From TrEMBL:
<dbReference type="InterPro" id="IPR008978">
    <property type="entry name" value="HSP20-like_chaperone"/>
</dbReference>
<feature type="domain" description="C2H2-type">
    <location>
        <begin position="166"/>
        <end position="191"/>
    </location>
</feature>
<dbReference type="InterPro" id="IPR013087">
    <property type="entry name" value="Znf_C2H2_type"/>
</dbReference>
<protein>
    <submittedName>
        <fullName>C2H2-type domain-containing protein</fullName>
    </submittedName>
</protein>
<feature type="region of interest" description="Disordered">
    <location>
        <begin position="350"/>
        <end position="373"/>
    </location>
</feature>
<feature type="domain" description="C2H2-type">
    <location>
        <begin position="271"/>
        <end position="295"/>
    </location>
</feature>
<feature type="domain" description="C2H2-type">
    <location>
        <begin position="135"/>
        <end position="160"/>
    </location>
</feature>
<feature type="domain" description="C2H2-type">
    <location>
        <begin position="244"/>
        <end position="266"/>
    </location>
</feature>
Length: 373
C-alpha cells in the first residue's frame, strides 16, 4: 500500500499499528537529530574512560605513616589491649607508652588539635543534651562554665572580645550591640522592627550581621575554651538516672517531657479558657481541642488579646513543670550517689533516682588519659 504523504485522507484508513509505523517513518525522514555527532563524541569518550587503567593511590609519607601508627596504637590501647603484642613489637610498645597522651604526642600539630577539640566540643554537647555545664573558661581569671550547647560557648567567648559585636543593620543607625539577643531587642525598641515584620532586604542584612557574629566568635573560641577546658558533665542520659515509676500512682513513664506533664497533672495545674464567659479549665495541652470543638476556632484564629493570654498560660505552665522537675530530680555528683532522696511537693507524684544505674555514667569520658578533653 502506497501512502501519499501530502494527502492526509489516507491516515484514518490505516490500522493503529500501521499508522504508528508510518508516522515514525515519516518523522525520521523529515527531522534529523542535530546532536548525533555530539552523542558519538560522548560515546567514544565514555568508552575510552572505561578502558583506562585506574590511577594509582598516592604514596604515604613517613610522617603520615608514623601518625597513623600512633592512632592505631592509641585505639588498641583503649579498646583492645590484647592485640597490642600482635601488631606492635616490644620497641613499638615502649614508644607508644611514652606517648600515652595523644594530644601531647608529635603527630598532633596545632591544626589537628583544634580540629579534634572542635569534634569533641560538638560531640560532647550532643551527649550532654545542652543542659549541663561542660566547659570552664580559661581566659584570664574567668571561671564561667556555660552549658553544653555550642552557641553558649560562642556567646560567652564574645564577652571577652569587644571587636565581636553586632552593628545595627538599619540605615543611618550607628549603634553597636554586644550580641544577637540585644540586637533583636534594639530593633524592636528603637526601630519598631521585629524580625517577623522585616522585608527580604532587611532580613538579609539582619541574618548577615548575626552570621558574622558567630563566625568571629567561633574563630577565637579556643582562646577561652581549649580542648582541655572540658570538665565533664554529671549525667550522660538524664532519663537513665530517674526511676520511671511514679511514687503517687505507680505508673511507669520513661520520657522526661511526659514525666513533667504527669507530675503537673497530680498538682492540678489548670487554667481558665481565654474566651470571655467560658468556665472551662484544663491544661494547655487540651485547649486546642477545646477551641475547635466548643468555640469552632483554631489557635491561629484567636484574637490578639486571646493569643496573648494563651501564650502567658503556656509560659506559666511550662515554668511550673520545669520548676517541679528541677526540684524533684537532684543533680548528683559522685559523692552524692548514696544520698538519693525523693521530694514530695504538695502530695504530687514523684520519680526516685535509681542508684543502680549511676555506675554507668560517663566512664569512658572520666577515664580518658590526662589532658584529653
Amino acid at each position: 500500500m502506497v501512502i501519499d504523504k501530502k494527502n492526509p485522507c489516507w491516515w484514518p484508513r490505516l490500522t493503529s499499528a500501521k499508522r504508528k509505523c508510518a508516522w515514525v517513518k515519516v518523522d525520521s525522514s523529515k527531522w534529523k537529530n542535530p546532536h548525533d555527532e555530539d552523542v558519538d563524541d560522548v560515546s567514544r569518550l565514555f568508552m575510552s574512560k572505561r578502558n583506562e587503567k585506574p590511577a594509582k593511590r598516592p604514596k604515604i609519607g613517613a610522617d603520615e605513616e608514623e601518625r597513623f601508627a600512633d592512632f592505631v596504637y592509641d585505639y588498641l590501647r583503649q579498646k583492645k589491649p590484647e592485640l597490642l603484642k600482635t601488631m606492635f613489637g616490644e620497641a613499638g610498645r615502649q614508644v607508644g607508652q611514652i606517648q600515652d597522651n595523644p594530644l601531647s604526642s608529635t603527630p598532633w600539630n596545632d591544626d589537628l588539635r583544634k580540629k579534634y577539640g572542635h569534634f569533641r566540643r560538638v560531640t560532647l554537647a550532643k551527649l550532654g543534651g545542652g543542659k549541663n555545664p561542660m566547659w570552664t573558661c580559661t581566659f584570664d581569671d574567668c571561671t564561667h562554665s556555660p552549658k553544653g550547647r555550642d552557641m553558649n560557648v560562642q556567646l560567652h567567648t564574645a564577652t571577652h572580645f569587644s571587636q565581636i559585636n553586632c552593628p545595627c543593620s538599619v540605615l543611618g543607625c550607628e549603634d553597636v550591640l554586644s550580641a544577637p539577643s540585644p540586637f533583636r531587642t534594639h530593633l524592636i525598641n528603637r526601630h519598631k522592627l521585629p524580625v517577623e515584620d522585616m522585608n527580604s532586604a532587611e532580613n538579609a542584612k539582619y541574618k548577615k550581621v548575626v552570621k558574622d557574629f558567630f563566625i568571629m566568635a567561633d574563630a577565637v573560641v579556643y582562646e577561652c575554651f581549649p580542648p582541655e577546658a572540658f570538665i565533664g558533665f554529671d549525667n550522660k542520659e538524664r532519663a537513665k538516672k530517674v526511676n520511671p515509676v511514679c511514687s503517687e500512682c505507680g505508673e511507669a513513664i520513661d520520657d522526661q517531657e511526659v514525666r513533667r506533664t504527669h507530675v503537673a497533672d497530680h498538682l492540678d495545674l489548670e487554667y481558665k479558657c481565654v474566651f470571655e464567659g467560658c468556665d472551662y479549665k484544663s491544661s494547655p495541652a487540651n485547649f486546642a481541642t477545646h477551641f475547635y470543638c466548643i468555640h469552632n476556632t483554631t489557635v491561629r484564629m484567636l484574637s490578639e488579646d486571646q493569643d496573648k493570654k494563651y501564650d502567658d498560660i503556656k509560659r506559666e505552665y511550662s515554668c511550673a513543670r520545669v520548676k517541679v522537675d528541677s526540684s524533684k530530680w537532684k543533680n548528683l555528683d559522685d559523692e552524692d550517689v548514696d544520698d538519693i532522696v525523693s521530694i514530695d511537693l504538695s502530695g504530687a507524684g514523684g520519680f526516685d533516682l535509681r542508684e543502680d544505674e549511676l555506675d554507668s555514667d560517663t566512664d569512658e569520658m572520666r577515664n580518658l588519659p590526662p589532658g584529653m578533653p
